[in-house]
Amino acid sequence: MSIAATTARQVTLATGKSKDRTPVSLAFLVALWFSLFFGVVVLLALIINTAIDGSGRFDIELLTNYVSVVRPEATGFRAGILGSLWLMGFTALMAVPLGIAAALYLEEFADPTTRWNRFVEVNLQNLAAVPAIVYGLLAVAIMALLGFRDTGIVLGGALALALLILPVIIITTREAVRAVPREIREGSLALGATVWQTTWRQTLPSAIPGIATGTILGLSRAIGEAAPLVVVGLAGSLLFDPEGVMSSVTALPMQIYSLTSNSREALREAASAAIIVLLAMVLGLNALAIFIRNKFQRSW
Amino acid sequence: MKRTSTRWAAASGATVLALTLAACGGGDAGSASGSEGSGASGSVAVDGSSTVFPMSVAAQELLNEENPGVQVTVGESGTGGGFERFCVGETDVSDASRPIEEDEVAVCEENGIEYTELQVATDALTVAVHPDLAVDCLTTEQLVELVGPNSEVTNWSDLDPSFPDQEISFFFPGTDSGTYDYMANDVVGDESEVLRDDVESSEDDNVLVQGVGGTDGAVGFFGYTYYEENQDTLKALSIDDGNGCVEPSAETAQAGEYTPLARPLFIYVANTEYAENEAVAAYVDFYIENLADIAEIGQFIPLSDELYSETQSALESLGS
């Protein structure tokens, strides 16, 4: 793959040099640069604008206090930050084992030619594109079937988010497993290992960097979601820390959503500061994914 | 080069995350020591009107300062959405900006939910104009014509030939405020749920007061309590809803005469939950006990002594 990329570049450089100066290709180049520039500028403007709006509130109270309407200037997002962390933990606990197991089955054991498996594959690809709010409805339905009256608890929220990122985890895990060279499996089988032993001791460990990257990217998507959590019925205002899987909970994006439209200036300012906190959490997760990929990635 | 920059990004990102987590963790120590408060413990689920939401949140917050053992969750699904959950037993207390409707009563009865209605405050809007403007009273129709989304009125004489020939400037609260929602949804009642948009708009009520008080022919609206504090620079319009012109005042609002710009706000309490769950009892008792402070935080008109004693006696009969 890397050879192909290098060759393509050399060809362009060698043969395309004179053509690069034609007005059409220059215009195209400018258009490409503009597209790139536009995206980055919009993102930067958004972040800087939000940071300026919330600049008065980058203090420790923002992280340690609860939301306060009595003292809006000391509002904090403790319940939301801790709630989001609890939700992430249980989301990972539900989605990761299930997602990896499903991916391993589809990649290593299932017969891709049967009608049933093709049906599952098509559905998986489509599931990744289903709007987040639909997973919220699905989670409410499942919770109702399980007999829960109050769905706005850690379990309900984590269920919605786990359903949301399950397709992402399955797809990235399959790609990671597929990238493990055939020779490793064949070598293991040739030495007398069973298919299960090969999968568990050779294929899966080799695919772990890819799986971890995909999982973390999935989680960083889940942490920013508010829509499915609104549907599940997480509380808008809550002044205590989550204590367990059955505890009522709120999440940072939900608190931001509720406070950005508040009529009190101080609460809107705090919401802007909280957006930066949420961005930092998402960027942190993404950075962790990049770190793991760079640190542990092997090439065969 | 590229490798170094991604590494750097990873390292700084991970540091930020670590700091965030550490800061959250550091806060835990504070809550552990705070749980020594006396009295009831348990959980209370509140949902309903987004208008009453600030009051129920204020009650939650003030109660938690005294007694962190009571864990209250407050949602804002709207009055109808709140009753939907309340009448199947999902919530203990329902916030409402109107009395419960018949079909909702039916659902409650079906599920055996008995409840008690407690009025907690009065919500009122005041339409104010520049003090020199020779307009004193508007009918409800004229008000809707003046502020509605399809309004063509730009001069006071457009509204009524007897009004002065004076260009109108509009000062409206921001679209996020409950005041705007009340005017748009409950008074004007247009499907679009908006008001005319050729107006000066501000979330800061001071800007509105200065605008209306300092511009000839200006009109604006805000919560009654805000007008009360700025009576010297503004003139309030009386509203004729079919029964003659009614001045805005705490009395007319509470007496139900100042329609459609005033409405009572309620909380509905599930009787069994109040009797059996000490946390629900503690929350509701605290709410009613401190009603004046809570109404003030919510920027509503506190109940008159008479209405307050009615609410108190309703609560007492609930407890017995």
TrEMBL record, chain A:
Membrane topology: Multi-pass membrane protein
Gene: pstA
Cited Pfam families: BPD_transp_1
Entry keyword Transmembrane: yes
Organism of provenance: Nocardioides furvisabuli
Stored SUPFAM superfamilies: MetI-like
Membrane-traversing stretches: 26-48, 85-106, 127-146, 152-172, 222-240, 270-292
Homology family: Belongs to the binding-protein-dependent transport system permease family. CysTW subfamily.
Presence of the UniProt keyword Transmembrane in the record: yes
Protein name: Phosphate transport system permease protein PstA
From TrEMBL, chain B:
Domain PBP: 35-288
Residue ranges of the TM segments: none
SUPFAM superfamilies per the UniProt record, alphabetical: Periplasmic binding protein-like II
Keywords attached to this entry: Phosphate transport, Signal, Transport
Keyword Iron: no
Extent of the signal sequence: 1-25
UniProt keyword Signal, yes or no: yes
PROSITE patterns (UniProt xref): PROKAR_LIPOPROTEIN (PS51257)
Family in the record: Belongs to the PstS family.
Main function: Involved in the system for phosphate transport across the cytoplasmic membrane.
Name of the protein in question: Phosphate-binding protein
Species, as recorded: Nocardioides furvisabuli
